[in-house]
Amino acid sequence: MASVTMKVNGKSVSKDVEGRTLLVDFLRNDLRLTGTHVGCDTSQCGACVVHVNGQAVKACAIFAVEVDGAEVATIEGQANADGSLNVIQQAFQDHHGLQCGFCTPGMVMSAAALLKENPKPSEAEVRSYLEGNICRCTGYHNIVKAIMAASGQDVAAIAAE
Amino acid sequence: MPKDHGIGASDKRREDVRFLTGAGHYTDDIKHYGATTAVFCRSTVAHGVIKSIDTSEAEGMPGVLAIFTGADFADVGGNPAGWLINSRDGTPMKEPKRPVLAHGKVRHVGDAYAAVIAETELQARNAAEAIVAEIEELPAIVDMAAALAGDAFVHDEIETNQCFDWGWIEDNRAATDAAIKAAPHVTTLELVNNRLVPNAMEPRCSIGNYDAGNDSYVLQTTSQNPHLTRLLISAFVMGIPENKLTVIAPDVGGGFGSKIYHYGEEALVLAAARKIGRPVKWTADRTEAFLTDAHGRDHVTKIELACEKDGTFIAFRTETMANVGAYLSNFSTATPTFLHGTLMAGNYTVPNVYVNVKAVFTNTAPVDAYRGAGRPEATYSIERVIDKAARELGIDPIEIRRKNFVKPDQYPFTSAAGLEYDSGNYDALMDTLEKHIDRKGFEARRKESEAKGMLRGLGLNAYIEACGIAPSNLVGVLGSRVGLYDAATVRVNATGNLSVMVGAHSHGQGHETVFPQIVGEMLGIDPQSIDIVHGDTSKIPFGMGTYGSRSLAVCGSAMVRATEKIIAKAKKIAAHMLEASADDVDFKDGQFTVKGTDKSVSFGEVALKAYIPHNFPLEDIEPGLEETAFYDPANFTYPSGAYACEVEVDPDTGKVRVDRFVAVDDFGNIMNPMIVTGQVHGGLGQGIGQALLEGARYDDDGQLLSASYMDYTMPRADDLPFYTVDHANGTPCTHNPLGVKGCGEAGAIGSPPTIVNAVVDALQSAGKNVTHIDMPLTPLRVWDAMQNA
Question: pTM of the prediction?
Answer without folding.
Answer: 0.97
